[in-house]
Each structure stands twice: as C-alpha cells, then as structure tokens.
Write a structure and sequence with these properties.
alpha+beta; globular; 26 strands; eight-stranded mixed sheet; Fumarylacetoacetate hydrolase, domain 2; 2 domains; 9 helices; five-stranded antiparallel sheet; SH3 type barrels
Length: 418
C-alpha cells in the first residue's frame, strides 16, 4: 500500500469498496440480466460490459466468463487469472492512469448499487464449519462443562470442525424462518417438539476455495493460500436448545442446517494482504503438517448489530478476526491431510469469532452468558436470544479512510416458525 491510489469514480468516506478492495460478486441488474460484478464506492461494475469493451482481451479469458449466475467458473481459473482481472480493474479505475475515452466506456458499465439485487456469489458444493476461536471454545466449555476442563483434549492439537449443509447457505437479506425441533427442558423427563426458544447468531468469516483436487491429494500450509480465492462474512445461525439435546454423540445437525447467511461480496486474499498480522502463540507446539511460516492471521474489525422490528439498531459486540487461534492455512491443511478432495466454491467457516473481553464475544450465548445476563437494548427490551422480527447485521473491514477494505454486511431477519 505504499503506492497510493485514488479512483475517478466517487468513493464516499469510509466506504468498504475503495480501489484497494475490488471484491467480486453476482448481481441482477435493473434489466433483469445476471452476471459477475465488482464494487467501487456506491456502484457496481458490470464485468461483462468491461469484457465486451475489450479491456480484458489480452488476458485470454474464456467467452461468457462473466455472463454466469455464479463466480465458480471465474475463480476456478486460479489465482493467475483472477489476480490479473483484479489488477486490470484497479488500473481502469485508477485516476492516475485514466483516459477520457476509457472513463466514458467504463461508465456505461457502472450501476448504482442500490439498483441491483445481490445474489449468492458462488454455488457451494461443500461447506465446513470450524471451531477455531480459543476464547469462544473456552467460554462455551466453561458454561457447559467443568471450567477447569473447558477445552477438550484435542482442541489445541487440531482445528476442530464438522461438515455442514451447503444447500441452506443464503445471501445477505434473505429472511430466516425460526427452526423447529426436539428440545429437552431441564424440568421435564421427556423431550418436547416445537420452535427453538434459544435462537442465536454466530459471528464468523468464511473462505472460498478456487480449485479442485483429487481424492488422496493434500494441501500444505505453505501452498494453502493458492487454493483460497477470498473471504466473506458468515452468520452461522444456531438453535442452542435444539443443539444441546441432539449433538451427543455426533455433533450439530438440525440446530445448524436450517440456514447460514453470507455477505454478497467476496474480498480477495490479495486485497487483505496488507492487513496480515501474527497469530496467537500455539501451545503446545502443533504437529509438523500444521506448522506454518509468516503472518497468516488478518486484522479485520468486526461488529454485530441487532434491530428489533421497526426499532433502531443496537451494536452489541465488536470483535476482530485476528483473534483466531487456528488460521485458514492450518484449517485447509488439516481438512485435506487425510486425502479429502476439495472443489471450486467450497466454503469453510471460521467458527464463532470471540475476543478476550465480554464486549467482543461472537454470540448471544456468550454475550448474555447462557441467559443469566440479558442484554439491555435502547428500546427498553432485553435479549438473551433472538426474537421473531429481530434483524441481525454483521459488518467487517480492514484499514480505514481511503485505504479501507471492507466486506459490506450480512443481514438477516428472523421470521416466525411455520
């Protein structure tokens, strides 16, 4: 970031979508067409229009690459091509390199962001959810087990995770229907059936892979980032009362598979590169296949707001992705060490991101401490878990001012159970 850049497209102060970002997504345009786009300020850039204007000709891209309903074909070209496309977009938008005729043509592909519909950016073949925040795992273990044994014996030795349900991943803005299932209240002998009474959010981020491997292939921590296209914000909705009854012995099921919400713009690893930071010290020393060199954590500020229906938003937590104990390279290396094959568009969620202080916890379960310390909201109500009509909004960004690289937001409103 030593070479300062500025765009000839107006970018409002503290916009997430500066020229240093250039994320990728899929949108439906006002004319009903659907295709790949990037974001700059309060506009989206129609990448098919840029392609038709000839600005990608020397990159030797496949025809109709940006005329797709998902980004899978584009990101599946690998880093060599996707990075070239991002660099070319930056070049076209950079005021120091602009030409009047270029600006005129590019402007035909700029559409106000509030005039497009954001769609799920990728088709997700497989979804994995990790459990990689030391603070979150400790908090949950303290609540539900002996505090002296909050972490299970394996936790500091490997990135714990489980395979989730990719079909119920939805884009930001999609309403979420309160799930139903079995629960076992402590004061009754037998389980009961009904809507979850302890619906929660989980503040997470997720990375998306850009390659397909064969069964038996492994990915090392050294090469992992070549397989990671970029990241999104991720809300892994959780029905805590259903989960506590069902998860023994195989883990989450109905408590998790009803919905997960993602932000529509994928921010590339290249855009996040200036915000690398050293991760927490891992003790005891991890096995050789999980060891890594360099800074693999990222300094990304995160926040969560809750908005009761027709009421103002309350920011209820502020955290940071840098707190993650297990980084993305370790997660992908562990995921494939047994020969598990990956696919283009696979999504790997971080697990709940909690910081070291109560104001940085990444779930209502922690913020209200298992419903013993309800959060007081500005409208006079309180929350231990999410009510029908509540909207949860997550935001994240790295950097500031004109060098800010952000994710926009992921939002979802809870509707009553059917």
């Amino acid at each position: 970031m030593n070479n300062k850049k500025s765009s000839w497209v107006d970018v409002p102060a503290n916009s997430d979508f500066t020229i240093y970002n250039i994320p990728f997504g899929i949108v439906e345009y006002p004319d009903g067409s659907i295709g790949a786009a990037s974001a700059i300020g309060n506009h989206v850039l129609n990448l098919q229009a840029v392609y038709k204007a000839g600005y990608f000709d020397d990159l030797m891209l496949p025809q109709n690459l940006f005329n797709q309903r998902t980004l899978n074909r584009f990101i599946g070209l690998g880093k060599s091509k996707s990075s070239q496309v991002r660099d070319r977009i930056i070049e076209l938008l950079d005021i120091s390199q602009s030409k009047p005729e270029t600006e005129k043509l590019i402007k035909t592909g700029l559409v106000p962001m509030d005039q497009v519909l954001h769609l799920l950016p990728v088709e997700v073949p497989n979804y994995t959810d990790f459990y990689s925040s030391l603070e979150h795992a400790t908090n949950v273990g303290t609540m539900f087990r002996d505090p002296s044994k909050a972490l299970l014996p394996n936790w500091r030795h490997l990135p714990v995770g489980y395979h989730g349900r990719s079909s119920s991943i939805v884009v930001s803005g999609t309403p979420v229907i309160r799930p139903k299932g079995q629960t076992k209240p402590p004061d009754v002998d037998n389980p009961v059936f009904g809507p979850s009474k302890r619906l929660d959010f989980e503040l997470e981020m997720a990375f998306i892979t850009n390659s397909r491997t064969s069964p038996g292939d492994i990915i090392t921590t050294k090469e992992a980032e070549e397989y990671i296209f970029g990241m999104v914000l991720f809300n892994d909705w959780s029905a805590r009362d259903i989960q506590v009854w069902e998860y023994v012995p195989l883990g989450p099921f109905l408590a998790k598979n009803f919905a997960s919400s993602v932000s529509p713009w994928i921010v590339t690893i290249e855009a996040l590169d200036p915000f690398r930071i050293h991760g927490p010290v891992q003790e005891p020393e991890v096995l050789p296949y999980l060891q890594y060199i360099g800074n693999k954590n990222f300094n990304i500020d995160l926040e969560v707001g809750i908005s009761p229906e027709n009421r103002e938003e309350n920011i209820i937590t502020q955290s940071n992705f840098k707190y993650m104990y297990w980084n993305m390279c370790q997660q992908l290396a562990h995921h494939t060490i047994n020969g598990c094959n990956i696919e283009v568009g696979d999504m790997y969620a971080s697990g709940t991101i909690s910081g070291p202080t109560p104001g940085s916890y990444g779930s209502l379960l922690e913020l209200a401490w298992k419903a013993t310390k309800p959060l007081q909201l500005s409208d006079g109500t309180s929350r231990s878990f999410i009510h029908d009509g509540d909207t949860i909004t997550m935001r994240g960004h790295a950097g500031s001012n004109k060098m800010r690289v952000g994710f926009g937001e992921v939002t979802g409103k809870i509707l009553p159970a059917k």
